[in-house]
Write a sequence for this structure.
């Protein structure tokens, strides 16, 4: 009944293999299914993103575009100075959200120029520019950061 | 003058760290006890020098010496003393200095307590510590010097980022660093053992208290960071799967695995090669965490000071130590003698399973954290890997692990009896099942995951209790005998039981988040708003001036049914100086739950747009972590006694550990 040295080692390796396989499966599935791509507003219109996909968009909050209603619904436009998207959001905006400043919104692309966001982030350095947005805008030559971040 | 002294001490520390690296290692290799003996003294001197540098910088902060760039950028003459002192590590340069100070502190402690260690092992351990310290001292001196002076001295400093001006900040980073950096000792021991080619139960007995100490601090540091983010960021969340949080979670997962594998090695002389590998990997993840936080390669809600040019330097250090450690491992590990054997169903086997789940969870977190970086480098696409990924990968792995914990705890060493363990755990399992069913019944129609998670948490607690009861209670034993046995139990048994029960408590707290209620509304004065079992209504909204800020305050009264339960206050604060707005959340604790208020805006007509949460049992999340750390501390107390004993009797009876186990 007692297992030989070889059998013991085999049992160990088999259980390790099983756990590793489960973990690898979970990681691969989650990576194919649960990640969100970052786009600028121009990317969205140019790349024919399918309506209903989950996206993360970044750009500047267009001046004068923020509209709030009584029940905490907010809409605002996010622009990369070329194209702009309308973002619909319900909830509290972050402390550092302001017009003319950088913003990142995550949610579902509704087709056309509309995005329904469930998360709005305004994280940034002292130049009020999220890194993703700064990179995207720099590429277009619209914004040159004063300081390297 | 003091600042120059600090700068000079830092340069000297680099020199002594080099001495500490080279001479003892050479002494260990050529077996020259004189050279090897240099290790302890150079470790003390390096520590003293870094301490002088650190105190010099602190003095500059306390005295508001605005000729120092670092002080100008991060301090203000009117700041309270506590934030002047904690301001030292609120920025990149100062926090790197703190990092190195903790590193050399650990080296000095190892030197102090290493009297009973084999001379050559101690010499090589301290040598590796010296090398790590030297590399980071060079990094500070060349890229992040906190002692740089200004030619034009300003009258006033720029103040601290207001988010960081908080008691949480005062203690969170030192705790976290004590954890991160503490794992360097395990790394150095691993490299020392590989250089020696000798590794045995004695090695594990020396390395385990250090690992446990680092683990306790890291546990506390993570819990504290989580609570700080919870009340300071005003989003009501307590974990965001943010890269910076992951950076501290990965070493914790790997370090927890290491903690368990050293037990196997100490008691059964098995899993040697694996333990060495874990020691290297755990500290590698600590270094990687430092790199992620300090280099600015990853954007994060927490990142506040980063500079990509420094990233290259840290990346170099990272490559040197991780690459070096792993290469040494690949070269020397095959020559290490394999240890004891065990049946798959045994305490050892259970600990292997624990290690597998913890290590794979760490890998899952690592992949999710680095994948955006890798993908952007490969094809330029920018992605974000968020909570959905991390929850999907880590939750199933952790659920499997947690279900198995009580079995592992009750299994015997070498060969276990699964049927017997099952019978002993029957009552514990029944209780957990009962808790789950009752919760299901009471919260009918609510989320399904919450009662399941609660049952899992109860299972961990009752399972731990079963282990203690089985060790104390035999049929027919009198109460006094039971108590005597309970007091006679090794402290590590109590420590294990507490730590696992603490995990169970945290799991209950996390599961209960599913019962949380969120209410979002724009309310006028005295408008009632339902938040879970409470009704809140706006009492007044007003402006107020505080020290260093002005704020718009919204004050609500809280009613439970017909009885008043006090006031809750939340505000929008503008910090003078930086003109930076922050939201100050209002948090009131009722029982184990918390009512959480976060104001969005006070409208011109006096109405307030507000977000309320009712978070039942939320305090258990951090309470459980505290109990885990307490369990670790109790085990450590046990360890200290045994180390003291073992150093005296080690040579006389090498099988001492066996007999005690």
């Amino acid at each position: 009944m007692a297992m030989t040295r070889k059998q013991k080692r085999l049992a160990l390796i088999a259980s390790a293999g099983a756990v590793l396989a489960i973990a690898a499966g979970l990681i691969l599935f989650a990576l194919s299914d649960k990640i969100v791509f970052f786009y600028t507003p121009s990317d969205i219109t140019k790349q024919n993103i399918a309506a209903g996909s989950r996206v993360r968009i970044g750009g500047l909050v267009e001046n004068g575009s923020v509209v709030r209603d009584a029940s905490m619904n907010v809409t605002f436009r996010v622009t990369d100075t070329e194209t702009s998207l309308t973002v619909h959001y319900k909830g509290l905006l972050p402390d550092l959200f302001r017009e003319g400043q950088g913003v990142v919104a995550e949610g579902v692309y509704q087709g056309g120029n509309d995005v329904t966001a469930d998360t709005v982030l305004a994280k940034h350095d002292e130049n009020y520019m999220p890194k993703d947005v700064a990179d995207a805008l720099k590429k277009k030559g619209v914004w040159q950061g004063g300081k390297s971040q | 003058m003091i600042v120059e002294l600090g700068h000079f001490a830092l340069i000297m520390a680099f020199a002594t760290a080099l001495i500490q690296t080279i001479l003892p290692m050479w002494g260990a290799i050529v077996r020259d006890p004189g050279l090897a003996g240099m290790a302890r003294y150079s470790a003390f001197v390096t520590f003293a020098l870094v301490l002088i540098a650190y105190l010099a910088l602190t003095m500059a902060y306390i005295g508001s010496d605005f000729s120092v760039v670092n002080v100008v950028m991060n301090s203000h003459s009117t700041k309270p003393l506590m934030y002047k002192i904690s301001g030292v590590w609120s920025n990149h340069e100062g926090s790197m200095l703190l990092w190195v100070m903790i590193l050399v502190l650990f080296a000095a402690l190892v030197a102090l307590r290493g009297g009973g260690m084999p001379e050559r092992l101690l010499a090589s351990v301290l040598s590796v510590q010296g090398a790590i310290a030297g590399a980071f001292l060079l990094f500070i001196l060349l890229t992040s010097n906190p002692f740089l002076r200004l030619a034009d001295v300003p009258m006033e400093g720029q103040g601290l980022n207001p988010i960081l001006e908080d008691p949480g900040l005062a203690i969170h980073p030192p705790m976290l660093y004590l954890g991160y950096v503490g794992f360097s000792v395990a790394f150095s021991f691993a490299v020392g053992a590989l250089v020696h080619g000798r590794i045995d139960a004695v090695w594990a007995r020396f390395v385990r208290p250090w690992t446990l100490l680092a683990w306790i601090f890291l546990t506390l540091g993570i819990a504290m960071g989580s609570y700080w983010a919870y009340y300071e960021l005003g989003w009501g969340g307590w974990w965001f799967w943010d890269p910076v949080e992951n950076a501290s979670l990965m070493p914790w997962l790997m370090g927890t695995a290491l903690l368990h594998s050293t037990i196997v090695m100490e008691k059964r002389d098995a899993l040697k090669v694996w333990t060495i590998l874990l020691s290297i990997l755990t500290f590698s993840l600590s270094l990687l965490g430092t790199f992620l936080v300090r280099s600015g390669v990853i954007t994060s809600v927490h990142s506040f000071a980063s500079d990509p040019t420094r990233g290259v330097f840290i990346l170099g250090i990272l490559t040197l130590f991780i690459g070096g450690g792993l290469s040494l491992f690949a070269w020397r590990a095959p020559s290490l003698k394999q240890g004891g054997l065990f049946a798959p169903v045994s305490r050892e086997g259970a600990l292997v399973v624990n290690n597998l789940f913890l290590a794979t969870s760490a890998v899952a977190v690592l992949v999710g954290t680095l994948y955006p970086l890798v993908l952007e480098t490969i094809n330029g696409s920018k992605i974000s890997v968020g909570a959905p990924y991390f929850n999907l990968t880590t939750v199933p792995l952790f659920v499997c692990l947690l279900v198995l914990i009580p079995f592992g705890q009750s299994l015997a060493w070498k060969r276990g009896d699964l049927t017997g363990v099952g019978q002993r755990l029957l009552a514990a399992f029944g209780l957990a099942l009962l808790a789950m069913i009752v919760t299901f019944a009471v919260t009918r129609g609510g989320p399904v995951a919450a009662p399941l998670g609660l049952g899992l948490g109860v299972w961990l607690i009752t399972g731990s209790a079963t282990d203690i009861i089985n060790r104390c209670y035999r049929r027919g034993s009198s109460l006094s005998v039971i108590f005597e046995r309970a007091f006679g139990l090794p402290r590590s048994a109590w420590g294990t039981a507490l730590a696992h029960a603490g995990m169970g408590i945290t799991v209950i707290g996390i599961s209960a988040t599913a019962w949380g209620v969120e209410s979002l509304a724009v309310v006028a004065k005295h408008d009632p708003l339902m938040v879970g079992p409470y009704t809140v209504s706006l009492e007044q909204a007003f402006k107020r001036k505080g020290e260093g800020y002005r704020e718009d305050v919204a004050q609500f009264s809280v009613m439970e049914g017909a009885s008043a339960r006090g006031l809750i206050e939340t505000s929008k604060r503008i910090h003078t100086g930086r003109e930076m707005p922050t939201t100050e959340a209002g948090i009131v604790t009722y029982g184990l739950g918390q009512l959480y208020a976060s104001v969005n805006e006070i409208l011109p007509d006096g109405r307030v747009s507000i977000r309320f949460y009712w978070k039942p049992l939320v305090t258990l999340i951090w309470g459980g972590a505290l109990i885990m750390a307490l369990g670790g501390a109790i085990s450590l107390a046990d360890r200290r006694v045994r180390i003291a004993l073992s150093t005296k009797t080690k040579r006389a009876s090498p099988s001492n550990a066996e007999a005690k186990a």
User: Anything to note?
Assistant: Residues 1-33 of chain A form one domain. Confidence is low (pLDDT under 50) at residues 124-129, 143-149 of chain A.
